[in-house]
Design a protein that fits this description.
single chain; 190 residues; 33% strand; alpha+beta; 4 helices; globular
């Protein structure tokens, strides 16, 4: 088995005022919360966004595990649509001590480079800060964090930092090298 060194960076915001919003892109781009837990839709987003950048952790999850995860209080999926077509998503997860993690964030390959990502990240981060407004029993958010790694898109780190996230940890670990699964062969441009 071949391994590769993967660098993982953890970033955070510690106040809502840390958020530096991006301008909304031109055109008909909308961001909507997926309020009905749908394992099929969430798996579609996960595989479609992460297929070319080696997101594999959840591909083996059975339907019941997807449903259980999505039904947890404080888990939200916000989807960006470009003229009615899913373009990307942000998944939020409430954690202990009034912390919210941006667990997944990204765009389908066809929608990258169109200024949708900064807008979606801004919107998703704002929703992380006001998560307790939508969930009875959650404390107001005190910290929003995320991680990105050297396998993610080349503009990921820059986008996070431009939105006001600050680096707080860096780790390098050897991981098994896996091929990008993609939703189906030939779906991504070379």
């Amino acid at each position: 088995m071949t391994t590769i060194a993967v660098t993982t960076w953890s970033l955070e915001q510690t106040a809502p005022t840390d958020l530096l919003p991006a301008a909304a892109p031109e055109g008909d781009v909308r961001i909507v919360r997926s309020e009905v837990p749908s394992p099929e839709f969430s798996r579609f987003l996960y595989a479609s966004v992460g297929g070319d950048i080696r997101w594999t952790d959840r591909l083996s999850w059975p339907y019941a595990r997807w449903r259980e995860h999505l039904e947890r209080p404080g888990v939200e999926t916000w989807v960006a649509y470009d003229r009615g077509t899913p373009a990307g998503y942000v998944e939020l997860e409430a954690q202990d001590d009034a912390v919210v993690e941006i667990v997944y964030f990204g765009l389908l390959p066809a929608f990258r480079g169109r200024r949708i990502g900064g807008h979606l990240l801004s919107y998703g981060t704002a929703r992380a800060w006001d998560l307790a407004d939508r969930w009875a029993g959650l404390s107001p958010t005190k910290r929003v964090w995320l991680h990105t790694c050297s396998k993610d898109g080349e503009h990921a780190m820059d986008n996070y930092q431009r939105r006001g996230f600050k680096l707080f940890d860096t780790k390098v670990e050897e991981e098994a090298e896996v091929s990008a699964p993609g939703p189906w062969p030939g779906a991504f441009p070379a």
